[in-house]
Design goal:
The protein is an alpha/beta fold. It folds into 2 domains: about 190 residues, 3-Layer(aba) Sandwich (Isopropylmalate Dehydrogenase); about 140 residues, Isopropylmalate Dehydrogenase. Helices cover about 40% and strands about 15% of the residues. The protein contains 11 helices and 12 strands. Strands 3-4-2-1-5-12-11-6-7-10-8-9 form a 12-stranded mixed beta sheet, sandwiched between helices. A hairpin with a 2-residue loop joins strand 6 and strand 7. Helix 7 crosses helix 8. The chain is globular and about 60 Å long. The N terminus is likely disordered.
Length: about 375
C-alpha cells in the first residue's frame, strides 16, 4: 500500500529537537507541603524530559529530604548556579539557598513562607529576562508568605503586579472546561462593591483573547454566571444582574465577544449547560472553584491569562494534612507542565499566523495602491 508522505513526521536533527525543548522554571512553593512530592513524582517519568528542561528554584538539600520521605532516593538531579548551566534530559536544581533548611513537614512556618517567596522572585527574574520559556508555580501558604515584598492574596495578584500588567484573569482549566474567576481572591462581601461594567468588559476581553491565543479556540463562546440566586429573579433577589451584569454582557457582544448570560450558576452546572461553551466567567471565587474542583479535583490546572509570560500551577494547595505521606497525586502538577508547553506552542502558532495575515494584508494594500495608481495614469488624457 502506498504511504501518504504528507502524514509522516519529517526527520529533525538533534539540534532542531533541542531548539524546541522548553526551559521550564518551577518555583518550589511551601517546602512543608506536597510541592516537592508532586514534582518528584512527575519527573520520575523520564518521558517528561522529551519536550522540556525543568529548572527548580529551590534547594537540593530539601529535595533530598523529600526524596527519602517518598522512597524516591534513586531520583537523579544536578545542581546548577545559573539557568545557562541547565542540562536537557536532566532535572536541574538552581540552589537559591546553600544553608540547611529546617523542615516541619505538614506545618506552616515562617521559613517555609520566606523560601517560597524567594523561589518565586528568583524564577520571575529569569522569566522576565528571557532565560525561561514558562513558569510552573508550586502551592504556597497565602498567610506565611506575607512580607514587605509579598503583600498579595495569591500568585495571580503578585504576578500581575510583578509583570506590570493592567488586567489578568485566573482561569481554572481541565480538558475543555475553562472557568475564569472575575474577582480572584476577593472576599465575598466585597464582590458586589467592585462589580461594575468596566471590570466585566475588561475580564471578558482577557478571557476572549486568551481562549483564542493560548487555547487555540478560533471563535470562543463565553457564558457569564449571575451574581444572585436565579439571576435575581427580575429584581426580587437583587438588582445587580439586571442593572450591571446583563448590560455589560450585551456591550461585550456588540464589541465582537461572543458572551452570553447571566446564567444562574446552580442550574448551569447541574443540567450540563456549561458543555455548550468554551469558557465560563464566574463572578467570584467559590462560584467557579466549587463546581470546577468537584469535576476535576486531581487533574485541574490554574492558568493566569493576560500575562506576557506563561504561568501555570496545579489547582490544589499545600495539602499539609497529607504532606510527607507519599499519597499525593502528581496529576494536577503534571497537567500544569503539559499545559504550559501547549500554551507556548499555541502562542507561537497564533503569533506566526497573525504576522502572516498582517503581511498578506499589507501586500494586498500595496497591490491595490499600485493598481489604483496605474488606473489613474491610464485614465489620464494623452497630450
Amino acid at each position: 500500500m502506498e504511504m501518504n508522505n504528507s502524514r509522516r513526521t519529517p526527520f529533525r536533527s538533534r539540534r532542531e529537537r533541542e531548539d524546541d525543548n522548553i526551559r521550564l522554571g518551577i518555583s518550589q512553593g511551601d517546602v512543608n507541603g506536597i510541592g516537592y512530592e508532586v514534582l518528584l513524582k512527575c519527573f520520575s517519568d523520564t518521558r517528561m524530559f522529551e519536550n522540556c528542561t525543568p529548572i527548580l528554584y529551590g534547594s537540593s538539600k530539601v529535595a533530598s529530604y523529600h526524596k527519602k520521605l517518598i522512597n524516591a532516593t534513586d531520583f537523579p538531579f544536578i545542581n546548577i548556579r545559573t539557568v545557562e548551566q541547565a542540562e536537557a534530559s536532566k532535572f536541574n536544581i538552581l540552589n537559591i539557598i546553600q544553608d540547611e533548611v529546617k523542615i516541619d513537614i505538614g506545618q506552616p512556618t515562617e521559613i517555609g513562607g520566606r523560601l517560597a517567596a524567594m523561589s518565586l522572585d528568583y524564577a520571575c527574574h529569569d522569566l522576565m529576562n528571557g532565560k525561561l520559556d514558562a513558569l510552573v508555580t508550586n502551592p504556597i501558604n497565602k498567610k506565611n508568605i506575607q512580607s514587605d515584598k509579598f503583600n498579595f492574596p495569591g500568585h495571580t495578584e503578585y504576578l500581575t503586579n510583578k509583570f506590570g500588567v493592567e488586567e489578568s484573569l485566573m482561569i481554572m482549566t481541565c480538558h475543555d472546561l475553562h472557568i475564569g474567576i472575575m474577582t480572584n481572591h476577593l472576599s465575598l462581601s466585597q464582590v458586589p462593591k467592585v462589580l461594575n461594567r468596566e471590570l466585566i468588559l475588561r475580564k471578558l476581553q482577557v478571557m476572549d483573547s486568551s481562549l483564542k491565543r493560548d487555547f487555540g479556540i478560533r471563535m470562543p463562546k463565553i457564558a457569564v454566571l449571575a451574581l444572585n440566586p436565579h439571576a435575581g429573579d427580575r429584581g426580587l433577589i437583587g438588582t445587580e444582574d439586571d442593572s450591571i451584569v446583563a448590560p455589560a454582557i450585551r456591550e461585550a457582544f456588540d464589541n465582537g465577544i461572543l458572551a452570553f448570560g447571566p446564567y444562574p450558576a446552580d442550574g448551569f452546572f447541574g443540567n450540563g449547560t456549561f458543555r455548550e461553551f468554551d469558557g465560563v466567567m464566574a463572578l467570584y471565587h467559590d462560584q467557579g472553584l466549587i463546581p470546577f474542583k468537584l469535576m476535576s479535583f486531581t487533574e485541574g490546572v490554574n492558568f493566569t491569562a493576560g500575562l506576557p509570560y506563561v504561568r501555570t500551577s496545579p489547582s490544589h494547595g499545600t495539602a499539609y494534612e497529607i504532606a510527607g505521606k507519599n499519597i499525593a497525586s502528581a496529576q494536577s502538577f503534571r497537567n500544569a507542565v503539559f499545559l504550559a508547553m501547549d500554551i507556548i506552542r499555541n502562542r507561537r502558532e497564533f503569533d506566526a499566523l497573525s504576522a502572516n495575515t498582517l503581511r498578506a494584508a499589507r501586500r494586498e494594500n500595496i497591490v491595490d495602491e499600485d493598481i489604483t495608481k496605474k488606473k489613474k495614469k491610464d485614465d489620464e488624457p494623452a497630450i
